[in-house]
Amino acid sequence: MSPTLADISGQGLKLPQNEQVQLARTLLESTEGTGDVDVEAAWEQEIERRIKIIDAGLAKGRPFADVLRDIDRQLDR
Hints:
Low-confidence stretches: none
Order of helices and strands: HHHH
Largest sheet: none
Strand content: under 5%
Distance between the termini: 27 Å
């Protein structure tokens, strides 16, 4: 019998935090297409812009748990 998503998620949550992040990145990268050079360049510019805003102290942060709760509400979970 194949492991379920719940089984795999449970195993992933038992990993050390740095390995959880590596797993998440691997999964996210596997879903991305080959990429468009212009789109990639535009994202790099946007990322740099956002980093500058954060470094300047102009960005408002939110706890990740609050963000996840809002997403769950929007998805009616």
